[in-house]
Amino acid sequence: MDGFALIWGCLLAIVLAQVLAYILCHHRLPLFIRATYEWGKLLDENTSAFNRKWLVPKSCNKQQKFLCYQIIIQVKEVFGYLDSANYYTIKTSSIILSLVLLSLQTFRRLYECLFISKFSQSAQMHLGHYLLGGMFYILVNLTIISDGSFLTSDGDTFRLKDLSTATNIIGVCIFCWGSLHQHRCHNILAQLRVGSSSHNNYGVPRGDWFNYVSCPHYLSEIIIYFSIGFILSLDHQSWWLLLAFITTMLSLGAVQTNQWYYQNFSNYPEDRRAIIPFLL
Questions:
Q1: Angle, CA of 24, 28 and 30, to the nearest 5°
Q2: How far apart are the first and last CA of the chain?
Q3: Rounded Cα distance, 11 and 94, in Å
Q4: Residue 271 lies in a domain
Q5: 13-62: pLDDT as tens digits
Q6: Cβ 186 vs Cβ 105: under 8 Å
Q7: Which regions span the lipid bilayer (predicted)?
Q8: 46-62 CB burial, b ≥16 within 10 A, e <16
Q9: What are the Cα distances from residue 175, in Å, to 39, 112, 192, 218, 240?
Q10: Which of 8, 93, 125, 246 would bridge 241 by S-S if both were Cys, CB 3.0 to 4.6 A apart?
């Protein structure tokens, strides 16, 4: 197991522990622990002054996105620091295509954060979430290139025609599908606060995948990262651990969000699941 697989494995173990804690003893946990897996509207409004010291405005998410620009620009410099003695199995074309798709995802999310999303003025997140978010965008880029054959002296060279494989084409189609629906869902959430006197208002989102699940933007995020994994192939073990971490973390958040909607809106659709239509 390489270093990045170990990192994502440890993060996955932490999230699984949070899931177990949420299932077994959520309401008995101290608020400072619950805040590590709750954010935004899910956080207790009566959080103590001590616990508030560890919270930052959720709109600080915008700052995290700028970290992506720095890491993407510096990717070439990173190559020289990676251990070329390891055995790499992923094709150069797959690595480059994955980096391009991740860049597109980053730029779109930055655009949405700056010009579309309307964050609640009272929404907050744990400082640990904020720091993890900053590290996450750096680790994702490094994880992609960590298993690339172009890092070794005898690795394959990039050829444009290598991009036109069936795996790459299908992966790009899945990526576009997930990105389209995530963009639509973020627009729907933003429209709930258009014309409102306060950005703190919440409403019941409807339309697109919101007709089936409470957090389709989380579902589409998982689909987007799955599409990159599809391109990288099953040989990229670090990426699939990353995907397991993302899936578990977002699923936990979706379940809590779904319960919050049911508790706060009497007219909330009874057949709407949390993140996976008809299942979860």
A1: 120
A2: 31
A3: 25
A4: no
A5: 988 988 888 887 766 676 656 666 665 565 555 454 445 555 555 555 55
A6: no
A7: 127-145, 209-232, 239-262
A8: ebeeebeebbeebbbbe
A9: 27, 17, 26, 14, 16
A10: 8
Residue 172 domain flag: yes
Question: Bridge partners of 125?
Answer: 39, 56
Residue 270 lies in a domain: no
Handedness of CA 56, 178, 111, 115 (dihedral sign): negative
pLDDT winner (highest mean) among 6-20, 126-140, 148-162, 171-185: 171-185
Phi, psi of 279 (to 5 degrees): -120, -65
Domain count, the chain: 1
**Which domain range does residue 85 map to?**
3-156+163-264
The token duo for 50 is 């001590």
CA distance 178 to 219: 8
pTM of the model: 0.83
Instruction: Tell me if 243 sits within 8 A of 222, measured CB to CB.
Output: yes
> Is 141 within the bounds of a domain?
yes
